[in-house]
Protein 1
Amino acid sequence: MTESIIHEARMALRRRHRALRDAMTAEECAALSRMICRRLTQEVWYASCPVIYGYYPLGREADCLAFLKQALADGKQVALPRMRGAGSAEMDFYAVASPDQVAEGAFHVMEPLLTCPPVREETAVVLVPGVVFDPAGGRYGYGKGCY
């Protein structure tokens, strides 16, 4: 297939799955988010993982803030992404002592405050938001390519 056909197929897949996600009620989203958070704390890697790179949910994305709060309570370092600039597709992660240490940033996404220290830990788990993932774990996000 040509690149343009592949691109169009991915765009259609994103649109379809975003519509399915956005059609869920707030109650359905909250219940599924609680299930995800509970499951994350039960994963084998959780006990030994020192750093978790998370994200602040946007719209109907899975809300993992309860998981991040639990990770902080368990003594783990939690870092959230901040875009390098409004037009940039690059981001850096910054440690937060609470998921409340955020302000609205690029693309109306909540980002760590400018006073938060940068984190560059390679031994970490990364929570990645996405609209849909392929069977191999490849992300079909919003098309910006940040992750």
Protein 2
Amino acid sequence: SGKVELNLEENLPMFMADPVHMKNIISNLIDNAIKYTKQKPRLNITTKGMGNLLEIKIKDNGIGISPENQKNIFEKFYRVPTGNVHDVKGFGLGLNYVNTIIENMGGTINVSSELEKGTVFTLKIPFNHE
């Protein structure tokens, strides 16, 4: 019952990537956006070319991530503390995986978030990478 808005730039250069890893990256970020939203999820996914980089942004209307926790979310096994009970199951591996694959592609991932407002993950990946 959520909404996904796609803003995909047309006529981008050819982008070569492992389809399994790219699917896992995008799926992980979308899955987290849905899991960490108290209301009907609203996602905005944007792609655009920036010189020799492909930029992918995934914006949500979720619960957000505090500045203190943003520093650690890409660490292996890190989960944002929620007291004794996690109402969302996981092992703290997803964002570490996403970060590792993006870095291996010569790219970067950044997070911008505000509590109770939502989160934006921005991936920048070279069009020509190994």
Protein 3
Amino acid sequence: ATLSVAIVVAALCAGVAGWLLSLRIKRPLTELTRAASNVARGRYATRVPTDVARVAGPEMAMLTSAFNIMAERIDNTEALRRQLLSDLAHEMATPVSVLGVYCEGLQDDVVEWNQETQDVFDEQLGRLKRLIADIDEVSRAQERRIELHRQPISLAELVQVTYSSYREPYATKGVQLHLRAVPQQWVVNADRQR
């Protein structure tokens, strides 16, 4: 009889302990599942409250911390990707606009094909080629590993190229650009295409 009572009491204690343990783990697992579903839907700012996980024990706290770190990295990577695409679109608009204005000017016979026009086309097409190559390097950019090919460049040359590129587009809008001489000895260490 004593053995039967002990077995019943032990079974009741085990049942109560199991029920309490399931209550302790249920909420953190529910929170983690909800957060994982949100991240899967593209809501990368979702985080699991760490105070809820601590109640379930150190293993659940570690799992929650790892999830939050992963979600933060995904969120940062996505933000960087959006910024990079926005920057690329903005950067591509300039050479396309310059080339478009020059093409219109050539068609309307207000711009003549000469060495300066050829230089503008070469420079702007070079920029577009470089930007297209940059698109291929998106993963490296997300890791902040874009390589700059710096070299000494004459500031006067850069200013002249920029002036030549923008003179016609501004002229079509009624704005006349004037270029002041830049000393030839002024040199900058830069990536010409970027």
Protein 4
Amino acid sequence: MRACIVSSGIWRIRNLIEGMTGFEPVCGRRYASEENFDLVLGWGRRPTSNAAQTLSQKTNKPFVSIEDGFLRSIYPGRNEPPISLVIDWAGVHYDATCASEFERCVETAAALNTPETSARARAAMHLLRELALSKYNHA
């Protein structure tokens, strides 16, 4: 799938996005008028993603939200490459105005409420604490 990128910040990490998603990044400034893409990528639901959301609506192509992952980088800062990304076709985890894929996954797992699911969640939380992992891991 060809992913139209209009954000310079997303364009800088296009190789990472391609490797993680398989999307073929195309520069929105070059291809937007041709509509030679399948979806539009934007940084979450921030005002900086307005151009991507507008292009998505104008071309009737899906808007896909990208955010820094919950384990973001070794050190904080714009120049640090992300070690994980959240790619969400429905919304974004911090926006309470609409559901996100992350929210739906949590709800689905909670609805199952099996001993295996609970044990897996407890083990994951324990591991995060044991390894002292946080969003930036610098402290």
